[in-house]
Give the backbone structure.
Amino acid sequence: MKQHFTLILIIIPLIIWLFSCDENLSPKGELTQKYSVNLLLRGDTTLQCAYISHLYDVAGFDPSTLSEDPVMLGSQISIKYINKGTTYYFRDTLDNNNLNPRYNSPSKYSYLKSFRPDYNSEIELSVNLPDGQKLTSKTTVPGKINFDESKTTNLIFIPPLIVYNYDSVYVNVFWKNENPYLFKAKRISFNYYHKDETGKKTLFVKQIPISTLQEGIQTGFDYNDVSLKDELHIERKLVEQALKEISEGDLKKSTYYVGPIQIEILLFDENLSKYYNSKLYFDYGFTIRNFPADMTNINGGLGFFASYSQTKRTIKFDDNYLLKKFGYLPESSTK
């Protein structure tokens, strides 16, 4: 079973290296029987994956010499909504279709199908290990984002179509949420179909850069934005560039059918926001404490449990804009 990618936002398995000194000045202390659980409840998919690993030792002092995957199966992993009776249980899998390149072996994880966390819900994690130990944690799934329609761009068109507060430089998106201290991740894309010579239409997804990155004489593009801001400003020239690229080198522009822009916002919970915030501070040298890999919110063990919600919004292209500027047809023409 293949795992969904993005966001990934947490390194799994969590590698722990313990040091202590005894009377012989040994750099290694006694290895304790501890376990790490990592689970990120995703609001953009109904497939949830959990990983349980154990502390390990190696011969010598280089942890990268470990030859066997420390992720383990056989634990009972469950989640439940607080104040609700239903308990959801994860199932173990040995994924032969998804090899772990580090150990050249099938990936090991536990999964839960057909589960998307509800907005504004408190969820409790419970892990019963084979040796009788129990690990627990909690997350509060953030709520749905509410877009400010009075400030958000609704339609992309060719001027001089008269619209109040028209911004000729940016496509603007504004929203509100109850907690201003939660981080948000933004992604932008649009779907399009291409019709080949046989008449077959194939669906593609095109990512749109959020901004440009300038390093010296080199220019790059940033396709992701993670910040506390409750607004997004997309350069119109980047939208046009993405539209041009889908048919670059092809003179048959009318064989392309373009859908609206998809704005996807992932709202992190408090656990994930604190994790991301500490990573920022560490990376930029503002603190030497709370290195992200050392953070844990698992009672009785190590690891991390968090969640995020997803909210989407579309911004339409005017049909004349697609046709006159690029020669494309709207996605609705394929139906």
User: Anything to note?
Assistant: The first helix runs from residue 236 to 245.
